[in-house]
Design brief:
By secondary structure, the chain is of the alpha+beta class. It is built from 5 helices and 12 strands. Helix 1 crosses helix 4. The protein is elongated and about 65 Å long.
């Protein structure tokens, strides 16, 4: 397994720089409402910086380039509608990056946690999990698609069937699960009636 390089830092200078995503880093953008919840989970655990744009009410996290594509796509696809991914691709996405020393508003600035690790790049798998929780707190539990407990992919109500089964092999008892019909067949679980 290759070590992830989290050592990027903003270019020197006193001015905001407009940089292309997908080269030195990828980025994700969320509303400030979602970010406020996310900060509560991230501070003390993933102590990396975030870019705050108070005028547009957005917060950006920078991630090592190309790692979102390497992570399970479902992790990020499920967040669509609440999270915008800025990566390399057919279209070039640019992001205004504040200078390293700009740590407070009123304009574009870095949000630095109290116990800052010194990192400007976040870990994608951890951040996606935290953002899913923050979205649920901000917009309600039904804001994101449910996950199939067998394959961990998104599960919409029209795809779900109810089955009796074990979520984990170590579970002592079977319990009701909502899963994809294909997952139920592959796991040899007996489907009850489709959920409505």
């Amino acid at each position: 397994m290759t070590a992830v390089n989290l050592s990027w830092c903003p270019p020197p200078g006193d001015d905001v720089m407009v940089l292309a995503a997908g080269r030195q880093w990828d980025a994700v953008r969320v509303s400030t409402a979602v970010a406020e919840w996310a900060f509560q989970f991230l501070d003390g655990a993933e102590d990396c910086a975030a870019i705050v744009d108070p005028r547009a009410a957005w917060v950006y996290w920078l991630l090592p380039p190309h790692l979102m594509a390497a992570a399970p796509v479902e992790q990020w696809d499920r967040l669509d509608g609440y999270v915008t991914r800025l990566t390399a691709g057919p279209a070039v996405h640019y992001l205004a990056v504040p200078p390293n020393q700009r740590r407070s508003g009123p304009g574009l600035h870095w949000r630095i946690p109290r116990h800052w690790s010194g990192r400007y790049l976040a870990r994608p798998s951890y951040l996606s999990t935290v953002l899913a929780t923050a979205i649920a707190f901000t917009h309600g539990l039904d804001a994101l698609p449910q996950k199939c407990p067998i394959c961990d992919r998104s599960l919409t109500p029209d795809e779900a069937v109810s089955v009796m089964g074990r979520r984990y092999p170590t579970d002592a008892l079977t319990r009701p699960l909502s899963v994809h019909s294909n997952c139920a067949r592959q796991a040899r679980l007996t489907a009850q009636e489709p959920r409505r």
